[in-house]
Amino acid sequence: MMHGRLRSYKRTDPADSEHPQLPVSVIICARNEEKNLEENLSLVLEQDYPSFEVVVVNDCSSDDSDLVLRQLSQKYPHLKVVTIKEHDRFKHGKKFAVTLGIKAASNEHLLFTDADCRPASAEWINMMQQNFVKNTEIVLGYSPYFRGKGFLNAFIRFETFNTAINYLSFALAGHPYMGVGRNLSYTKSLFFKNKGFASHIHIPSGDDDLFVNQNSTRENTVIEIRPESQVWSWPKRTWSSYWKQKIRHMGAGKAYKKSDKVILSVQAASAGLFYLLLFVLIVLKAQWWMLLGIYLVRLLVQLIVYYPTAKKLNNKDLLWWFPALDLSYNFFIIVLSIISLFKKKVKWK
Fold first, then answer.
1. Domain annotation covers residue 13
2. Which chain regions cross the lipid bilayer (predicted)?
3. Residue 225 sits in a domain of what CATH number?
4. Residues 220, 223, 225, CA angle at the centre, nearest 5°?
């Protein structure tokens, strides 16, 4: 089982001499993120790392983000601000802002996160950086969501957990296919060698997962999931905002490599077919013990695999609600996939 790779994963730390603390540029794109910049940016600026800068791209903000950044710049000399002004005729997405941030970066190693994200520790940069040994050009980090009240919070965290298990396990199997921009690192030379986002600049989303999909290989990609290296944020608080976010992400998925789309489609279909089979058996009035047995066998296998992984990824509490969340998640993915086929226009913010 593919997900078993993450279950049994144990990091082997290379010798200190193999991962020198080279300069790093942290890049954050922010549009109307005044409050988040006030609350979170200092945690990035105060990382325990000998040589780094933080590049914040203030992308057409209409709030007081500029004021907040100017105040922080006076306190933190390693904060660099790139400002994009609104243009009446030229409209751009996040990829343009990310590209400007990369061009402004002084260092070869780039580390990405968002304005609403909080590093779990002051060792975040250091732990992500430690993975750049030998041929490494991409480091896939993990970014969980804070636990809150209500089913929506649990559902989003479960969806994020499932997504992480998948892309991290595939990376361990030598088949990396995506990453999440809340905690992602790659080299500047890789970005420019492959012409950045040029091949998918027409797609509003995908500055993270599409870039990884098109540039990652078995040899150049590793994962980092230690608790101190994780980056936390709050999930969407309304179903409508979450739906818009997922529709935007699905737009990028259409541009994945054909082999990846086939694999992911088969995965989604197999889970959906399992529940469809149960429904058909119920309609056909199959014996209750047979239905329960089929369901429990699958559930037991899932829990054996997911429990150790959930501990590693700080989502152990979700397993109490696993049956309801798994059913809801698979139904949601099917509906989302169908709707996204007809959705044409999406935007960053």
1. yes
2. 262-282, 288-307, 319-342
3. 3.90.550.10
4. 165
**For 183-226, how does the pLDDT look when each residue is reduced to its tens digit (9 = 90+)?**
999 999 999 998 989 888 888 788 999 999 999 999 999 999 99
d(CA 88, CA 192): 29
The pLDDT confidence band at residue 151, using thresholds 50, 70 and 90, is very high
Q: How far is residue 96's CA from residue 202's CA, in Å, rounded to a whole number?
A: 11
In a domain, 266, yes or no: no
- The reply to whether 348 falls in a domain is no
Question: Which tens digits make up the pLDDT trace of 20-42?
Answer: 789 999 999 999 999 999 999 99
Average pLDDT over residues 52-80: 96
- The 3 state secondary structure assigned to 195-262 is CCCHHHCCCCCCCCHHHHHHHCCCCCEEECCCHHHCEEECCCCCHHHHHHHHHHHHHHHCCCCHHHHH
Q: Contact 168/223 with Cβ under 8 angstroms? A: yes
Scan for tokens 């980056």, then name that residue.
231
Distance of CA 317 to the CA centre of its chain: 20
Number of compact structural domains in the chain: 1
Is residue 199, in this structure, part of any structural domain at all? yes
For residue 87, with 0-12 CB atoms within 10 Å meaning exposed, 13-18 middle and 19 or more buried, which class applies?
A: exposed
Helix intervals (H) in the chain? 4-7, 34-45, 65-75, 94-104, 124-129, 151-172, 188-193, 209-215, 239-253, 258-283, 288-312, 322-340
- pTM for this one? 0.90
For the packed helices 34-45 and 65-75, what is the interaxial angle rounded to 10 degrees?
20
Would you state the structure tokens that stand for residue 339, as one six-digit string?
A: 């709707």
Residue with tokens 């660099």: 80
193 token code pair: 């060698």
Q: Scan for tokens 């590793």, then name that residue.
A: 222
On the question of pLDDT at 233 being above 90, the answer is yes
77: left (phi over 0), alpha (psi -120 to 50) or beta: alpha
> Which residue's structure tokens are 């936390």?
232
Range of the domain at 29: 4-258
